[in-house]
């Protein structure tokens, strides 16, 4: 086997300390250590997510600095693992990895020109999907699929509420909910965003800045409430969710866009026998079987047109581009996905 030759350095979006947008820099760093069980990937596209801002701000901790940001990329395999046990593993072989093959990656610290990642964190792009679409749809697509399957199993006849439905994850949840036969209610900030959400399958969209969300949800559901709430806002919407859930409903706390949810007593669930979960996709997709199932299902649904990946904007691979992407994401002005195009020699 020919040993691959890699550059000595990479370009990466990284931080030397946590803080505001100004701590995000484009740095030249040593080429990452290549472990025997890793794939090495030349990155083509970077997906921007709220979790990038949580790490940058210090809401989620890094163990050391400089720390490379990001957890969503796509690109081309330039080297396979060297560990014979990995190469002979049937689960590894089932994924169909090959040098020159295209993959999408969900792994922390990967917003850079080259990455070295455990093979199980790389999803072989199937069903004719491009690296651009895969890089835009992987994390939010896997989140929507796994949450609708395992956090609360959305089924025909359900009524669900999705907060910030015009964002990247929200638009995927709208489409998936509609595909599964649910009535989808969403919240968003503007009429323009509401129209986009409706075009992606939302049945009712509430303008939370102009309307009373609780009142509207109870009107739509004839006072019964919804079967499940998927809430990526966090602190600002958490309390009102309990008023909008029906008896035996489920609250899925998806994210912290407005800040972390404060501690609460389990007794809050008692009046309606509610369920509360705060899942993360990375604990639903751990085993090779789970990765293969959800990865292939996602790309199949994208290819079939069940899930349309709405890309809001592409940014350049510069410090200014990365900072602007995070500003735009947290500023509430975007619909769909933000991507950074990685340009290399």
Automatic annotation (TrEMBL):
<feature type="domain" description="Enoyl reductase (ER)">
    <location>
        <begin position="19"/>
        <end position="340"/>
    </location>
</feature>
<dbReference type="InterPro" id="IPR011032">
    <property type="entry name" value="GroES-like_sf"/>
</dbReference>
<dbReference type="InterPro" id="IPR013149">
    <property type="entry name" value="ADH-like_C"/>
</dbReference>
<dbReference type="InterPro" id="IPR047618">
    <property type="entry name" value="QOR-like"/>
</dbReference>
<dbReference type="Pfam" id="PF00107">
    <property type="entry name" value="ADH_zinc_N"/>
</dbReference>
<dbReference type="GO" id="GO:0005829">
    <property type="term" value="C:cytosol"/>
</dbReference>
<dbReference type="Pfam" id="PF08240">
    <property type="entry name" value="ADH_N"/>
</dbReference>
<keyword id="KW-0521">NADP</keyword>
<protein>
    <recommendedName>
        <fullName>Probable quinone oxidoreductase</fullName>
    </recommendedName>
</protein>
<keyword id="KW-0560">Oxidoreductase</keyword>
<dbReference type="GO" id="GO:0070402">
    <property type="term" value="F:NADPH binding"/>
</dbReference>
<dbReference type="InterPro" id="IPR036291">
    <property type="entry name" value="NAD(P)-bd_dom_sf"/>
</dbReference>
<dbReference type="GO" id="GO:0003960">
    <property type="term" value="F:quinone reductase (NADPH) activity"/>
</dbReference>
<dbReference type="InterPro" id="IPR020843">
    <property type="entry name" value="ER"/>
</dbReference>
<dbReference type="InterPro" id="IPR013154">
    <property type="entry name" value="ADH-like_N"/>
</dbReference>
<dbReference type="GO" id="GO:0035925">
    <property type="term" value="F:mRNA 3'-UTR AU-rich region binding"/>
</dbReference>
């Amino acid at each position: 086997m020919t040993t691959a030759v890699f550059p000595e350095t990479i370009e990466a979006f990284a931080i030397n300390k946590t803080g505001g947008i100004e701590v995000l820099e484009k740095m030249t760093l040593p080429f990452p250590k290549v472990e025997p069980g890793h794939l090495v990937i030349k990155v083509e596209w970077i997906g921007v997510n709220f979790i990038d801002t949580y790490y940058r701000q210090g809401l989620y901790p890094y163990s050391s600095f400089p720390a490379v940001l990001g957890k969503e990329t796509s690109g081309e395999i330039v080297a396979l693992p060297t560990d014979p046990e990995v190469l002979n593993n049937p689960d590894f072989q089932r994924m169909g990895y090959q040098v020159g093959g295209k993959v999408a990656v969900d792994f922390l610290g990967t917003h850079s020109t080259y990455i070295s990642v455990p093979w199980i964190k790389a999803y072989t792009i199937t069903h004719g999907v491009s690296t651009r679409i895969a890089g835009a749809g992987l994390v939010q697509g896997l989140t929507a699929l796994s949450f609708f399957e395992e956090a609360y199993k959305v089924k025909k006849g359900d009524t669900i509420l999705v907060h910030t439905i015009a964002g990247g994850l929200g638009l995927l949840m709208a489409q998936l909910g509609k595909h599964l036969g649910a009535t989808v209610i969403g919240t968003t900030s503007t009429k323009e965003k509401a129209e986009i959400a409706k075009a992606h399958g939302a049945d009712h969209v509430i303008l939370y800045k102009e309307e009373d969300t609780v009142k509207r949800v109870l009107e739509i559901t004839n006072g019964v409430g919804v079967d499940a709430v998927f809430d990526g806002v966090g602190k600002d919407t958490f309390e009102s969710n309990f008023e909008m859930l029906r008896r035996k409903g489920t609250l899925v706390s998806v994210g912290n866009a407005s800040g972390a949810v404060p501690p609460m007593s389990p007794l809050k669930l008692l009046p309606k026998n509610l369920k509360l979960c705060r899942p993360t996709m990375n604990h639903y997709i751990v085993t090779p079987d789970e990765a293969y199932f959800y990865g292939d299902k996602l790309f199949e649904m994208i290819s079939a047109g069940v899930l349309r990946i709405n890309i809001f904007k592409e940014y350049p691979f510069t410090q200014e581009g990365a900072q602007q992407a995070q500003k735009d994401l947290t500023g509430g002005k975007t619909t769909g996905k933000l991507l950074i195009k990685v340009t290399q020699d």
